[in-house]
Amino acid sequence: MRRTSRALLVVFAVGAAMLAGAAPALAHGGVVGEDLHVAASLGDRELTVIVRRVGPVPGPLRVDVVNHAGSPGGTLRIRAAAFGAVPAGDEVGLRLADGGGLAGVTLHVDRVGAWELALDDGRETARIPFVVPADVTPAWQWVMSGGYTAAGALLLAALGAAAFGRRTWPPLVLGGGAATAVVVATTAALLSQGMPEGTEIDPVTGRPPATTVPDGAARPHVNLLADAALVAGQRSPIDLRLVDGATGRPVDDLVVHHNALVHLVVLGPGGQFAHLHPARLGPGELRVWFRPSSGGEHRVYAELERRGAGTGPGGVQLVQTTLSAAGPALAETTPAGLGDRDLAGGTSVRVEASRLVAGEPSVLAAEWSEDGRPVRDLQQWLGMAGHLITVGPDATVGHVHAMPPAAVTGSAAAPDETVASGGPRIEFVYTFPTPGRHRLWFQVERDYEVVTVPVEVDVAAAAPRAEAGS
Q1: What structural domains does the chain harbor?
Q2: 41-50 per-residue burial string, b: 16 or more CB within 10 A, e: under 16
Q3: Which of 10, 163, 285, 385 is a good FRET partner for 128, with 20 to 30 A between their CA atoms?
Q4: Nearest residue to 440 (alpha-carbon basis) of 265, 299, 323, 280
């Protein structure tokens, strides 16, 4: 009996560890119950808004805001409201420090479902959607926890019967029942490891949906409409409208894709590059402020993802348009190629690339140092260790990510933007679709400043394949 008790106790410990490691619920575009990071270019500021995971409701909602280097300080007015309801509390002022840093406030939520976080800088208001999830326990978890609870009760009863009873069969029966309960609970725990990672949560109700949309289901194409009166050297707003290609209605079902609702890349005629994140002002309406350095035509690319589209074909869309800026056109600048270069503040970067052949994967790397010593305090930006934007001779744009170590290993404890532990080497894998001259922009974050390094490379054409029988 003593050996059986010890074995059961060991199994209890294993089951408890499995229960503690149960996956949280999911919502397409992010993990419900985990922190939600959303980048937003609001007015003169480049921000990352962090909506911390929400516990039982009603309860507190912690919101932290990262103000990036180069963005002015000042006060933001922040409030939260459920969709279709009045705000759950008064506005709270958040003071941002000059030069970059983190500040936060605590708000209040009183129901599950779809919510909207409003950030007002005195000129415009960004509205960020998020979900307060219901505490939904999957069936296998009920079976596992119930089985271990029943096994514990039966084990105690068996020990009591063995200690104080005169007959031998009650402890054996109770011990057998405890062992059966442990087997059932452990089986449920083991089978859960092969189940989908968490329960899909409806982004409106905060609860599991009655029906699910297959991952990768096609969604209508988004039309991007842009309106701006750009002048070289002046900071002006770009108003964007997202319109459903099938219905003509505003598109308001965007999900957070790589820590942003929309990734906007602007390429100017003088070689200017900007990677921005427009603030959502309302359904299908976004705005971002931009200062062109040159007059002439600017190409605008928006990367976005619609709810329910998944990550398969038709999931992430890259839509584009053009804008013209008044003023003299600057001569095209040519960035340096591969090799070493010195940056501001004593920082240096070495850019390397493996075999640059169209149609074949290439490894591109940027290794950072300062005063001859490796840099090991890079921060994650947009959930990644680094970003690489590419544009080819045919104007094809690529957006490549360097995955953080935790994302590669599947760990849920990936460091966020507030942790400076990356570097010195950031690697990307990319397959250039066409030969010719390609322009690249490597981007990392350090001291809350996004550092961009432009590079130009020549990609060779693939060798012709030998015909069969030759």
Answers
A1: 2-24+139-192 (no CATH), 38-131 (2.60.40.2550), 222-326 (2.60.40.10), 339-459 (2.60.40.1930)
A2: bbbebbbbbb
A3: 385
A4: 265
